[in-house]
Design brief:
Low-confidence stretches of chain A: none
Strand content of chain B: 15-25%
Mean pLDDT of chain B: 93
Radius of gyration of chain B: 18 Å
Shape of chain A: elongated
Number of strands of chain B: 14
Oligomer: heterodimer
Largest sheet of chain B: 7 strands, mixed
Structural class of chain A: alpha+beta
Distance between the termini of chain B: 23 Å
């Protein structure tokens, strides 16, 4: 589950990580009063207006602006709120901005120059442990830094049995070229970020930039955090922070039926049991000359109800020109699925697109018979090869 | 004739008396698997499916001589179950459970690695089967046939698809290993391929991967270096968009090297017979064996 920046920072501060003071605003008026409050509480002069959407690269798309007075904050919040923010991580239409974070400006001049660093934590799949990735090149696109100057991106792997050790934090601070007060302040910061990662079951924490302020404090100026969905059961409060506005409404609806659905931009809908077979079915659609309109895994216990729900969800997409149902019945019997398809089809009434049903496995022959004798406009197949050929035929018509 | 499990495997079921455990244990027994008992904490001393129930894996191992365990316990308790089995000296642990928190698996995998004689398969996998001898998993037994093709896969139903095609091509399977669809799994593609490569009775290997991670590339490089048998490969998710999780928690395209296209290219360069369409896995294996 993705968190917004303001949510990530809320969690950060619970672990003692220093973050800029900030307030959420849904309107330009709220942005103005947020700025006034921040000025009163923190003495900050300027504030930063930051779009709160689930996408990186917000600054590049014009979703992050500095405001030097209340006139500017009203104007800039007004421009960002309601915009469709387009960043390298969004679709071409961008993401609608519904709220902005008004944050204290941390780049005020002082005894020393402010400097930005990069820090992230994720799980290294190959090594089977968590890894801290860090760089002196903060505030930049880290993928770009890794490509152009790989020697500036460092990694520190953490032994899960003992967790992050003090010497590792010292090595990170040393490799970042820190000394004196900044060095000392960086050590607890690293430890706290790691505690937040483990404590909240994050699958990603990315802080870019980590800022050394002009008075040598270490602050998480930005924060991106993703929580492991499988662990949400033990983070009940955070689970309620899920922002449905940031998700595709059809995908949310599918989730309510325990269907695993991802909306894509093709013309052939598909309904499959099992994630691997679902991806393989999408590939088959492509090879047959079509393009998949979705990923949809009905799971291991497909029933008439789930088949009907899946039909409804697929048919919501007007670009769907055909539907391929591909079920390998192992534990689930194919004849039951076939009956489910026929029932759902009759119940839905007006399905105007051709449907190819491929049922293989337990009672496959019986299932094919049920489909063939149903009198419905449904093409049946047993072999995957046949199903692919039928998709190609239907698309050619 | 097989790897990891055979007709002599003595199997216990963790989460024996629950719905999933009961259903699949019955199916395994029906297939002929030597299920010698099960574990449900608090129900030790009772009998289930005509087999003894124990409170701990340790008791079960001591009293039945079990050397293989299959885990059906809910996600919140599954990592603990894996570690308990490793601690009790189980040689092959098969974890079916889907949805274990990644941080729990980080710990469990590290723990298992400290027990050199223990191998974990999964989690989030269909299990292992040596056709005609032992089914330790949730796969439909009847599609399999004893034979000489080893199969390694991250998926469930896609594995069944490959098995079915192999059977229909007139070949059979030595052992099919479902390694699981999670980001962190006990046995990697490379390790499973290596086991099958070293098995004298396996003549060909089918390797089914998907987007995300580097396991297939690692396996391909190993095959190039040490391979002695034909390997047929398929990667699911050629049409998957970047940055989205496709059902399996581990199936997400993160960079440029974990896309299906990149993996397939690496596999081709390493001499693997890569199929673009999953409909041709069986026939490609048949042709590869004739060469």
């Amino acid at each position: 589950m993705n968190l917004h920046e303001y949510q990530a920072k809320e969690l950060f501060s619970r672990y003692g990580i220093s973050v800029p003071h900030g307030k959420l605003a849904y309107t330009p008026d709220e942005a103005v009063s947020a700025m006034e409050q921040l000025q009163a509480e923190t003495g900050t002069n300027w504030v930063v207006v930051k779009a709160q959407v689930h996408a990186g690269g917000r600054g590049k798309g014009g979703g992050v602006k500095l405001a030097k007075n209340t006139t500017e904050v009203r104007e800039k919040a007004g421009a960002i709120l309601g915009m469709h923010l387009i960043t390298p991580q969004t679709s071409a239409e961008g993401k609608l901005v519904r709220k902005v974070l008004i944050a204290e400006d941390m780049y005020v001049p002082g005894p020393s120059e402010p400097k930005e660093y990069y820090l992230s934590i994720l799980t290294d799949r190959a090594k089977g442990c968590n890894v801290i990735i860090y760089s002196t090149e903060g505030g930049m696109d880290i993928e770009h830094v890794a490509e152009v100057t790989p020697h500036l991106v460092h990694k520190e792997w953490i032994d899960p049995t003992v967790g992050l050790q003090a010497f590792q934090a010292r090595r990170i601070a040393t490799n970042l070229g820190l000394s004196g007060e900044v060095y000392k302040n960086m050590l607890p910061f690293i430890a706290q970020v790691y505690q937040a990662f483990v404590g909240e079951d994050a699958s990603l924490i990315e802080i870019n930039p980590v800022l050394k302020t002009s008075d040598n404090r270490i602050v998480a100026v930005d924060g991106k955090m993703t929580i492991d969905n499988s662990a949400l059961y033990r983070h009940k409060e955070v689970a309620t922070w899920r922002d449905f506005d940031e998700e595709d409404p059809t995908e949310v609806e599918a989730g309510n039926f325990n269907l695993n659905y991802v909306n894509l931009d093709g013309n052939v809908g598909c309904m499959v049991n099992g994630a691997g077979l679902a991806m393989a079915t999408m590939d088959i659609i492509k090879l047959a000359g079509g393009s998949p309109a979705n990923f949809l895994d009905v799971g291991g216990k497909a029933s008439a109800e789930t088949v009907e729900a899946a039909f409804r969800i697929i048919l919501k997409d007007p670009s769907v020109k055909a539907i391929l149902i591909n079920i390998f019945g192992g534990i689930v019997r194919c004849d039951r699925i076939a009956n489910g398809v026929v029932e759902a089809y009759k119940k839905l009434g007006n399905i105007n697109v051709p449907i190819i049903v491929r049922l293989q496995g337990t009672n496959a022959e019986l299932a094919k018979q049920i489909i063939d004798e149903s009198g419905l406009q449904v093409h049946s197949a047993i072999l995957l090869k046949e199903a692919a050929e039928k998709v190609a035929q239907v698309l050619a018509q | 004739m097989s790897v990891l499990v055979n007709k002599h495997s003595r199997v216990i079921v963790q989460g024996f008396t629950g719905n999933e455990g009961t259903f699949h244990a019955s199916q395994m027994i029906e297939y002929g698997t030597k299920v010698v008992g099960g574990i449900t904490p608090g129900k030790g001393g009772t009998t289930h499916l005509d087999r003894p129930v124990f409170d701990t894996v340790q008791q079960a191992v001591q009293q039945t001589g079990a050397n293989v365990s299959i885990i059906f316990v809910p996600p919140a308790f599954a990592a603990d179950a894996i570690m308990e089995a490793a601690d009790a000296g189980i040689g092959v642990i098969v974890c079916i459970t889907e949805g274990i928190p990644v941080q729990d698996m980080v710990k469990a995998k590290t723990y298992v690695l400290r027990h050199p004689s223990c191998r974990l398969i999964g989690p989030n996998c269909p299990g292992i089967i040596t056709p005609g001898e032992a089914k330790i998993g949730i796969m439909p037994g009847f599609i399999h046939r004893p034979g000489t093709i080893g199969i390694v896969s991250r998926s469930g139903t896609l594995t069944y698809e490959a098995v079915d095609q192999v059977t229909k091509a007139g070949l059979g399977q030595s052992t099919c290993i479902g390694i699981g669809g999670d980001p962190i799994v006990g046995t990697t593609t490379k390790e499973a391929v290596q086991l099958l490569m070293e098995d004298p009775d396996t003549e060909g290997i089918i390797m089914i991967g998907e987007i995300g991670g580097s396991m297939e590339a690692d396996a391909a490089y190993w095959v190039k270096e040490y391979g002695t048998k034909p390997v047929v490969g398929f990667i699911a998710g050629q049409t998957a968009p970047a940055g989205r999780t496709m059902g399996h928690a581990g199936a997400i395209v993160g960079g440029t090297e974990d896309t299906a296209a990149a993996k397939m290219e690496i596999m081709r360069q390493c001499g693997i017979h890569v199929v673009d369409s999953p409909a041709f896995i069986g026939v490609t294996m048949l042709n590869a064996l004739k060469k």
